[in-house]
Amino acid sequence: MKRFALLLGALVAPLILVSCGGGGSDLGDSPEADAVRYRQGVMHAIEWKVIELRAMADGDTALDEAQFKESAGELAALSTMITEGFGPGTDIAGSNAKPEVWSDWDKFVAEATKFAELTRNFANTAQQSGFNAAKDMAAQVGGACRNCHSPYRKSGQ
């Protein structure tokens, strides 16, 4: 529960900073800029979870099976939030998204849906069968991130 609170804080902090006048000023002050900040927060949280899970799966950090299961579940929840921040008008300067997000919207949504399904299966496997059954799926999750970032995220971002 403590980790979920930290995760929630990571998602909400950019919005609080903006409402207080700090952070994210390069995006401007508009509902569209807030949506971009939201999606960036979701993506950063996903990145943190994927890095943590991959490190345990690859043996780069000590295994904490309970933490692995919890983080896999949090990743699955975050993955369902991806498309929420890509509404009309959110292709603004300062965004990392390529124009193809909107020009290939159906394909983008399909990729995000595949990622959500993969992370849900990953989390379910971790919960039901444990770390050893799920650890090899961590590489697939990372690959799914790259599959979407390549066509839809500006390089070097």
Please describe what this structure looks like.
The chain is mainly α and 157 residues long. It has a single domain (2-19, 28-85, 94-152), classed as Four Helix Bundle (Hemerythrin (Met), subunit A) (Up-down Bundle), CATH 1.20.120.10. Helix content is 69%, strand content 0%. The chain has helices at residues 2-19, 31-57, 65-79, 100-103, 105-129, 131-134, 137-152.
SS-based structural class? mainly alpha
The biggest beta sheet reads: none
> Can you tell me the CATH topology?
Four Helix Bundle (Hemerythrin (Met), subunit A)
The residue-averaged pLDDT reads: 86
Q: Can you tell me the overall shape?
A: elongated
**Strand elements, count:** 0
How large is the count of helical segments?
7
What is the CATH architecture term?
Answer: Up-down Bundle
CATH superfamily: Cytochrome c/b562
Helix content: 55-70%
What is the class in the CATH system?
Mainly Alpha
